[in-house]
Amino acid sequence: MNLITWIQNAFIKYWYLIGWRHTLEIIFFSALFYYLSVWLKQDKKNNLLPVFYAYCILAFISYALDLSSISQFLFMFAPVTIMLFITMHQNTLQKNYVTARNQSYDLSSDWVDELLRATLSAVNNHTPITCLIESEDALDSLVNSNIHFAAPLQKELLDIVMTSSSFDSEKMIWVTNLGNLKAINTSWTGTFDTVWVEKALHTDAAWKQDALLLTSKSDATVWHIDPKSRTFTIIRNSTVYTDIPIHEFKSQLVKHLYDNSVKKNEGVYHHEPVQKNREQQPSA
After folding, report:
1. What share of the chain is helix, strand, coil (3-state, %, to 5)?
2. What is the pTM of this model?
3. What is the mean pLDDT of residues 35-62?
């Protein structure tokens, strides 16, 4: 009882000493400091967390030693420093400015054929397939996947994956241009901003909205096959090419993966069908 009484008395004493307003302020700034530290720790490239701690320690030491000029300078430029941390953070850079780079293209016909054969088998079972092909821009910070792989593309493996109960046909299969399977059940990590998108696309399927966002932020290519029409749709550089028959799909895919002449449309989305002469560029 004496211990409990002592704790109660100490709590009441310090509560009146600090006050509820100061308590709320301490909780607020402590939570802000904690969540900012957790977010900075997620950056594996720039290692910003030790720099942030060093800045805070230097600010408090200069204040404790009454180094008024240094402490005022550090506290005055604290908002600027935080903005620099946010700008330099890996996730911000990769989602809004630039993505990390992978190896160059190695588009061998073997893995494309393996992928196409497995896709046609799934279509025969009335399963829609959407595939995300990662090129030079790394997509790890742009997409989410709940099942990951690190295996070469083979029809037998893809058949098992596409027929498993864990496979979600509403999401994307994630492969690389080197012929490796990275993940299944893949989707865009962000949100679909309808303000900057044509009204005709607001009601499009989730895979198409994800594909438009991904191809606006990277050099990735997304394709989809509809089991009913048995035609392909390819999305690259935020441009949609539709109604591609099976016998032309491979040549169209190779062309789009090798096509570096069209620059990324940063945040601008287009919706153009493939014309009968599919070499024709979509109209502006």
Report:
1. 50, 20, 35
2. 0.56
3. 81
